[in-house]
Design a protein that fits this description.
The protein has 495 residues and is α/β, with parallel strands linked by helices. The chain has 15 helices and 19 strands. The strands form three sheets. It has a ten-stranded parallel sheet. Strands 12-14-15-16-17-18-19 form a seven-stranded mixed sheet, covered by helices on one side. InterPro entries: F-box-like_dom_sf, F-box_dom, LRR_dom_sf.
Length: 495
């Protein structure tokens, strides 16, 4: 008997839970593969109610899965994430309202509105997080509002409120820790929301930890406003006109450690972001260059959390250079050590030269391979003798890339590495993410073998240290072992 077979049931359930959480498989049920180990493990997993209480049907869900998880969850607190597409789900969910602790609901507007209209008929004593998004098939002429009675003691444990295109009574909030709002007006006011009303709402939640606001009310030029103290704020995201964002920042007293993400409209020159940078420039950051307004999640995976993320719409390359110059000058240049340019798909070589020359202490560069990446390597080759400080380069070869672009990039990269090696300043680490295995062909294998001795450290490909010498040894060992294995299993070896 294995020692694990002697562990008590309670401890085994705890181990199952740790496994599901640490592998991020609690909601998608991929943790259930452990049920196939043996009959005892299967029975223990079926009886572990908390393991079934996290129900995520946003990307992969059927009625059978919903019923099964509700049944096996027993009386455990529920976490529900749903894209609403069928009305009969409403009754099933609301029947379990007293044990729902997290509810994340999005989808067709009329179905989400149906749930909103019935929320006040049920009790939610355990609800701590509520997220509602009826933006799909939304009628712009009609905006649903949350019932006022919900905020009259019906949600005593509510700490996180995330709303999109849903009005609610601003003056009724209190005690929230998380408040992301996207185009949400004050349902208790007959006039459009005011800047003072926004500040009053924020002042009622002094323990806010995360705040995200789109569509900030405009302020009056000659009117004095109060300053709201948010001492626990860890993350602030603002998206509106650059002047409105700046006005709100002036009237918020936040810790210097708060991470700021500002997505301003109306930025036409470097002067437009000057005030934001002067008042809120961080002491350190990871600088990211993206072609879109907001970062894509797959690009942000594993990226460092920036104290300041400023994203705008430069109308031309000269404007881009002016904005970048303002940003870089607002931060001590010796503090910028990492450049994440995985979204800079169209920067020309001149723009890359200007950028790199403004960053004298950059040590690590992150890239995705496309036209802009080739321009980056060209710029590195051109200015290397003046700025020989890059130690680590990471690049990812995206699936949609053509073979010719991969060859062009690898040719330039090999020239850059050889030049560094010849000048006595070899690169210390080269990291390659090649999910489509573009570099597995014979021509690219030869090129990889040539650049291997040019790196004074490790080359890591797809998370594995690349060593062509060891690969050849393993291949030779396999060729010797293969005939014996083929004979053992009766496999014919072709001549």
């Amino acid at each position: 008997m294995a020692p694990i077979s002697a562990l008590p049931n309670e401890l085994m359930e705890r181990i199952f839970t740790i496994y599901a959480v640490d592998t991020d498989t609690l909601s998608n049920l991929k943790w259930t593969k452990i049920m196939f180990v043996c009959r005892r493990w299967c029975e223990l997993a079926e009886g572990a109610h908390r393991l079934w209480a996290s129900i995520d049907l946003k990307y992969d869900g059927t009625p059978l899965r919903l019923y099964t998880q509700l049944k096996r969850s027993g009386f455990a607190p529920l976490t529900l994430r749903l894209i609403w597409c069928d009305e009969y789900y409403t009754d099933i969910i609301l029947e379990n309202s007293e044990r729902i602790c997290e509810l994340d609901l999005s989808g067709i507007a009329k179905h989400v509105y149906d749930v909103i209209n019935r929320l006040s008929d049920h009790s939610f004593p355990a609800l701590s997080s509520l997220s509602l998004d009826p933006s799909y098939k939304q009628d712009e002429r009609f905006i649903q509002a949350l019932p006022d009675v919900l905020f009259d003691g019906r949600l005593p444990g509510l700490r996180e409120l995330t709303l999109t295109l849903i009005d609610f009574p601003w003056a009724s909030l209190n005690g929230l820790h998380t408040l992301p709002l996207t185009y949400c007006n004050d349902s208790a006011a007959s006039l459009p929301p005011t800047f003072s009303g926004l500040l009053e709402m924020l002042s009622s939640c002094p323990q806010l930890y995360i705040l995200k606001l789109d569509d900030i009310p405009s302020s009056e030029i000659h009117q004095d406003y109060r300053t709201v103290d948010l001492p626990d704020l860890a993350s602030l995201r603002l998206r509106d006109d650059v002047g409105t964002c700046m006005t709100l920042l002036i009237h918020l007293r936040i810790p210097p450690t708060t991470r700021l993400q500002i997505l301003p409209f109306g930025v036409c020159s470097g002067a437009d972001v000057r005030d934001i940078l002067i008042d809120h420039g961080p002491s350190h950051c990871t600088m990211s260059i993206f072609c879109d307004t907001e970062h894509h999640s797959f690009l942000d995976r594993g990226a460092a959390q920036c104290p300041l993320s400023l994203n705008c719409h430069p109308r031309s390359k000269p404007v881009l250079r002016k904005i970048m110059t303002k940003v870089i000058n607002a931060i001590p240049s010796e503090s910028i050590t990492h450049l994440d340019a995985r979204g800079a798909s169209s920067l020309c070589e001149v723009a890359w030269k200007n950028t790199l020359q403004l960053l004298p202490t950059v040590e690590t560069i992150y890239l995705h391979v496309y036209t802009g990446t080739v321009n980056c390597v060209d710029a590195l080759n051109a200015i290397e003798r003046f700025f020989p400080r890059i130690r680590h380069i990471y690049f990812c070869i995206i699936r949609e890339l053509g073979e010719d672009k991969v060859v062009a990039f690898m040719t330039l990269l090999a020239a850059y590495l050889e030049m560094r090696f010849t000048n006595g300043r070899p690169l210390q680490r080269l990291e390659i993410d090649d999910p489509s295995h573009f570099l597995s062909g014979d021509e690219q294998k030869t090129r990889m073998e040539r650049i291997f001795p040019l790196v004074d450290g490790q080359i890591v490909r797809n998370g594995v240290v690349y060593d062509p010498v060891r690969l050849k040894e393993l291949r030779a060992e396999w060729e010797l072992e293969w005939p014996a294995l083929a004979a053992k299993f009766g496999i014919d070896i072709a001549d």
